[in-house]
Amino acid sequence: MLVLAELAKRKLALLGLIIIVVIAGSALLAPWIAPYDPQNQMFDGLTIEGAPMPPGGQFLLGTDLLGRDLLSRLMYGAQTSLIIGIVANGAAVLIGALVGVTAGFFRGWIGTILMRATDLMMAFPALLLAIVLAAIFKPSLWIVAMVIAMVNWVQVARVIYTETRSLSEREFIEAEWGIGASRFRILFKHMLPHLLSTMVVWATLGIATTVLLEATLSYLGVGVQPPTPSWGNIIFENQTYFTSAPWLVFFPGIAIILLALAFNLVGDALRDILDPTQKGRH
Amino acid sequence: MIAYILRRLVQAILILLGVSIVTYALLYMLPADPARQIAGRSATAETVANIREQLGLNLPFYEQYLRYLGNLLTGDFGRSYLQKTEVGELIAARLPATLLLMAGAIFCELLFGLTAGAIGAIKRNTPLDRGLMVASFVGVSAPQFVVGILMLYLFAVVLGWFPIGGYGTFAHLVLPSVSMGFLGAGWYSRMMRSSMLDVLRQDYVRTARAKGLGRARVFFVHAFPNALLPIIAMIGIDIGMFMSGIVVVESVFGWPGIGQLAWQAIQRVDIPIIMGVTLVSACAIVLGNLLADLVAPFIDPRIKLR
After folding, report:
1. Residue A275 neighbours by CB distance under 10 Å
2. Would residue B58 count as lying in a domain?
3. Which of residues 115-134 of A touch B (CB under 8 A)?
4. Same-domain status, B64 and B182
5. In this structure, are B203 and B290 located in the same domain?
6. Which of A50, A137, B34, B304 is deepest in the core (most CB within 10 A)?
7. Best mutation site among B24, B133, B146 for testing chain A: the one with the most A CBs within 10 Å?
8. What percent of chain B has pLDDT over 70?
9. A162 touches chain B (CB under 8 A)
C-alpha cells in the first residue's frame, strides 16, 4: 500500500498504472463491453469492393480483412497479451529466482551447473531459440507462454544470483551464521525479504519484455494462432494489406507499445522506490 | 592478462559446444523427415532410404551429432536440405548485408541515444529532459516490427522518401537501420543520462568550471568523453539483441541477410541452415561479451580482470 501511494506520486508511474488499469479492464470486461463478437465476419464489415472499413462510423477502429471489428479484436487480444505476460513472466521470475538462489546461496556443484547453464542460455539468440521451440511444440496460448518463460528466466537468474552472492557476504548474514542460525532460517528470514524487492521489480519490468516477445512471435506466425486474437497476429494477418489499410497495423501496434510502456514505467519507478541506494539519482 | 584471455577463450569454446549440442538436439526433435524433404515428394521409398543411409540419418542421435561436429571442425556446415547448396556458402553470401545493417543500427542507436542522454543530463529536470525520458521509454517499449512497418508506411509509402524495401543503395539502408537502432537508442539514452549526471557531479568538472572554462568547453572536452567510456563497452553486449532483431527487421524490409535466411529456413524446416545461423549468431554473441569484458579495464582502470 505504501508502495502504491509512492507510485501514485510519480507522474510517469501514475500514467503507467492508468494505462494498465484501462487495458486490463477492457480485457476483463471484453465479453460485456466489446461492441461486436471478435470472430464474427460481418457482411456490413466490408465495403462493396470487399475492402476493410476505415475507422469511424459504425466500427470505431475499422474492420479487418475478413470484416471483423478491430476494436473488439483488440479487446480480446488484450486478454492474450496479459495472460501470457503474467503467466510467462511469473514463471520466468520463479525459475530465475530458484536458480539464482540455489546457485548463489547453496552453491556446490549444483550451483556451478546451474550457472553454466545460464551462461549457455545467454549465448543463444533469444528469438531464434523461441521460434524453434515454438515450432517443435506447436504453438498454443500456453505453449507460447512456456516458450517465453524458457527464454526469459535467464536474466532474472543472473540478477538474483549476483544479489544473493553479495548479500551472503554482508555482516548481518555472517553474524547469523556465527550465532548458529540454520541455513533455512537465514534464507527465509534474512535473505528472501531482501531479494523480494528485486523480484517485484522484475515481475513488473519483465512483463514488458514478455509482451514484446509474444507480439513478435505472433507477428512471425509462430505465436498465438488465429482465430484467437493477439495484437501480434492481428498485424501478421493483415500486413500484406497495410498500405491501403494502415489502421490494421497502427492500432494493434500502438496497443503493444502502450502496454509495454506502462509496465516499463511502473517497473522503473518501483526500482527507484524499492532500492534505497538509488535515491536522489534522478 | 594472457592467462585471463586464455581462460575466457576456453570458456567460450565450451559454451559454443554446449550451444551446438542443445541446438542440434532441439532440431532433432522437430517433426520433419529430412530424407523425404531432400528426395522430394515423388521419390520412391527406396530413394528416401538411400538418402537416409547416405546422410547417416538412421544413426543414433549422438553419432549424428559427432559426425556434424567433426565436419564443423573442418569448416563444413553441411548442405541445405532444400537448396542443395553448402550452408557455409549461403551464410557467407548473406553475412555482408547483415553486418552492414548492424553497423547502420549501431550508428543510429549511438547517434540518437547519446545525443538524447547528454541533452537530458544537461537540461536536467526541464520539460525537454522529461520529454526525452518518455521518448526513451517508448523506444524500449516498441517492438521492432511495429517500428519497421510504421516507418515503412510513413516514409516509404506516404512520403516516398525511401524505397519500400530491398537492398543496394544507401537509401535502402536508412529505414532498417533506424528500426533496429530505435530500441537500443532508448537504452543508450538512459545510460548516457545517468553516466553524464555522475560525471557532472565529479570534482574535476567543478574545478574546470571554477577555473573559468566555458560551459561548452567543460562539457565537450571534460564531461562528454568520460561519460561515454562506460557506454562503449555496452556495444559488445548489444550484439545479442541484434541477433534477435535481424530476424524481424530483415523480414519486414526484405533485407537479404542471415536473419532472413534463418527465417526462411525455419519456415521450410531446413535444419542445416537453422543450425548454421544459430551457431554463427552464438559465436557473435560470445565474442561480443568477451570483447566487452576485455575492453572494460582499459576504459576504467579500477576494474581488474580476474
Report:
1. 13
2. yes
3. 116, 119-120, 122-129, 131-133
4. no
5. yes
6. B34
7. B146
8. 97
9. no
- Among B43, B73, B103, give the residue marking a domain's end: B73
pLDDT in tens, chain A (282 residues): 677 788 888 888 889 999 999 999 998 987 888 787 887 777 777 777 767 777 887 777 777 777 788 888 899 999 999 999 999 999 999 999 999 988 888 878 888 888 888 888 888 888 888 888 887 777 788 888 988 998 889 989 988 988 888 888 888 888 888 888 888 888 888 888 888 888 888 899 999 999 999 999 989 888 888 888 899 888 888 888 888 888 888 999 999 999 999 999 999 888 888 875 554 444
Taking CB atoms and an 8 Å cutoff, what residues of chain B touch A133? 26
Residue B161 is assigned to a structural domain of this protein? yes
Q: Does residue B115 share a domain with residue B19?
A: no
| pLDDT > 70: percent of chain A | 96
B51 plus B138 within the same structural domain: no
Domain assignment present for B80:
no
Domain count, chain B: 2
Q: What is the ipTM of this complex?
A: 0.86
What range does the domain containing B35 cover?
Answer: 2-73
Closest residue in B to A123 (Cα) is B282
The residue among B11, B43, B73 that closes a domain is: B73
What CATH number has the domain bearing residue B289?
A: 1.10.3720.10
In a domain, B78, yes or no: no
Whole-angstrom distance, CA of residue B223 vs CA of residue B208: 10
Interval B200-206 mean pLDDT:
83
Q: Does A253 touch chain B (CB under 8 A)?
A: yes
- How far is the C-alpha of B264 from the C-alpha of B266, rounded, in Å? 5
- The letter for the amino acid at A240 is T
Phi-psi region of A170 (alpha: psi -120 to 50; beta: other; left: phi over 0): beta
Q: Residue A161: which of A188, A199, A120, A205 has the closest Cα?
A: A199
Four-residue CA torsion sign, B24, B254, B184, A210:
negative
3-class DSSP string for A83-143? HHHHHHHHHHHHHHHHHHHHHHHHCHHHHHHHHHHHHHHHCCCHHHHHHHHHHHHCCCHHH
Contact B138, A257 (CB under 8 A): yes
For residues B64 and B203, membership in a common domain is answered with: no
Cell 515454438, residue located: A134
For residues B109 and B56, membership in a common domain is answered with: no
For A:23-82, CB contacts with B below 8 A are none
Report the distance separating Cα B299 and Cα B283, nearest Å: 24
Do the chains contact at B146 and A257, CB–CB below 8 Å? yes
> For chains A and B, what is the number of CB pairs under 8 angstroms?
128
The distance of B228 to chain A (nearest Cα, Å) reads: 18
List the single residue in B29, B145, B240 with the smallest CB-CB distance to A216: B145
**Chain segment A230-276, per-residue pLDDT in tens:** 998 888 888 888 888 888 889 999 999 999 999 999 998 888 888 75
User: For A208, which of B27, B141, B248 is closest by C-beta distance?
Assistant: B141
